[in-house]
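Tokens for chain A. Residues wanted.
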């Protein structure tokens, strides 16, 4: 693993720990709100999408018949990953908050701490392998010579 890959891998957990540190700022501080909002909107999802990235890139995007954009597949993959990051993060926030509400232990700090710990754990997970493309063997009808 190169140092650049390590930095990219540890960026979401670092954002979570930074958001936890920002809780020490005064309650109405815009910096506090921005740090927490950015982490909650992108941190957990980015860690999960990094794990799934090879599997997501196994199938290239198929564009319309008339291609006006030569980078269609790259743009579609980027949009797909950004959308997944956002919605996985929102889903993780809602899931953790629901569990904490159900156990009568809900607080914003606990939600943030739990998501930071889960994001840190996800950063240490190895990426999934892309499944090999299915083999296409020529099929011969039954009883015919090969």
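Reply:
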């Amino acid at each position: 693993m190169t140092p650049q890959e390590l930095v990219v891998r540890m960026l979401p957990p670092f954002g979570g720990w930074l958001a936890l540190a920002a809780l020490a700022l005064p309650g109405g501080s815009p910096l506090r709100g921005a740090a927490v909002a950015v982490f909650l909107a992108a941190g957990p999802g980015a860690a999960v999408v990094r794990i799934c990235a090879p599997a997501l890139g196994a199938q290239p995007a198929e564009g319309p018949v008339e291609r006006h954009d030569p980078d269609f597949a790259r743009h579609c993959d980027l949009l797909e990953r950004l959308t997944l990051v956002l919605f996985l993060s929102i889903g993780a926030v809602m899931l953790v908050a629901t569990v904490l509400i159900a156990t009568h232990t809900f607080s914003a700090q606990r939600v943030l701490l739990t998501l930071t710990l889960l994001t840190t754990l996800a950063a240490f997970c190895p990426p999934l392998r892309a499944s090999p493309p299915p083999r296409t063997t020529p099929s011969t009808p039954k009883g015919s010579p090969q």
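The CA atoms of residues 8 and 129 lie 19 Å apart. The chain has a mean pLDDT of 84.
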